[in-house]
Amino acid sequence: MRDLNIIRSKKGFISDMDGVIYQGSTLIPGVKEFVNWLQKEKKQFLFLTNSSERTPLELRKKLQSMGLDVEESHFYTSALATAHFLKTQAPGCSAYIIGAHGLINALYEVGIPFNDVNPEYVVVGETTGYNYEMIIKATELINKGAKLIGTNGDMTSPSDRGVIPACRALIAPIELATGKQAYFIGKPNPLMMRTGLKKLGVHSEEAVMIGDRMDTDIIGGVESGMETVLVMSGVSNRENIQQFSYQPHYILDRIGDLVPKKAKA
């Protein structure tokens, strides 16, 4: 095990949420102590989530309901990253949106309206309202020339109901029907990672990425030049990480293990 003090001395901390901060609607043990330590040590920190369903305010309320209060400015979602990407790529564009209000709000806030007639983009994120008519409409619009964007490339995500389909699973029927491949914005896309670092105001060498997934969090951190911490409180275990060509710098049972023992006392 490498010296954890190397990680503790970093200026910026970027952490995933599902499987790291909470599981479903339950806060993972040690998270409160971790956040208290970050605040006491005046660290810069950001919760970076591939989920596009909730706004930062809703994420704050979700954590509040679990007994943890974190300001909205500490949250960055794949919906916000998608809105930023489209605003810079195609100012004045419109989109046919399949997603929850976290995505719809993020696009609206940067001036990208909903358009189901002749949009430049079809944008897909997670939503419980997904249906066959949406697949038909998206296919029709893409065949007319709209470009396909996914908020994130996760096939599944954890929930109170177990593992459930995520964005890539929802977008797959549209890709199959049109023969067009989606461009995914969320982790591990370096666009989202670099924006996170910019929001923190720290260089990649001064930051650490903490997550529970090898295929998004850890590779995203590695490719962005950050030290990486994989926690065992989510989808990964010590057996399945061996199949990957890249490895995390540190493996911990949970995020609370980063807090020095004297700070816990």
Could you explain the architecture of this structure?
The protein has 265 residues and is an alpha/beta fold. The chain has two domains: 4-50 and 188-264, 3-Layer(aba) Sandwich (Rossmann fold); 79-184, Rossmann fold (3-Layer(aba) Sandwich), CATH 3.40.50.1000. It is 36% helix and 20% strand. The protein has a six-stranded parallel sheet. It has a four-stranded parallel sheet with strand order 6-7-8-11, with helices on one face. Strands 2-3 form a two-stranded antiparallel ribbon. Helix 4 packs parallel to helix 5 and helix 6 (132-143) packs across helix 7 (167-178). The model has no long low-confidence stretch (mean pLDDT 94).
List low-confidence stretches: none
Query: How do the helices and strands follow one another from N- to C-terminus?
Result: HEEEHEHEHEHEHEEEHEHEHEEH
Give the beta-strand count: 14
CATH superfamily of the largest domain: HAD superfamily/HAD-like
Tell me what portion of residues adopts beta-strand conformation.
15-25%
Helix content bin: 25-40%
Distance between the termini: 23 Å
Assign the CATH class of the largest domain: Alpha Beta
Put simply, the count of helices is 10
User: What is the count of structural domains?
Assistant: 2
CATH topology of the largest domain: Rossmann fold
Find the structural class using helix and strand composition. Answer: alpha/beta
Arrangement of strands in the largest sheet: 5-4-1-12-13-14
Q: What does the overall shape look like?
A: globular
Largest sheet: 6 strands, parallel
How much is the average pLDDT?
94
Radius of gyration: 19 Å
Named at the architecture level, the CATH assignment of the largest domain is 3-Layer(aba) Sandwich
Family: Belongs to the HAD-like hydrolase superfamily. NagD family.
Cofactor: Mg(2+)
GO molecular function: metal ion binding; phosphatase activity
InterPro entries: HAD-like_sf, HAD-SF_hydro_IIA, HAD_sf
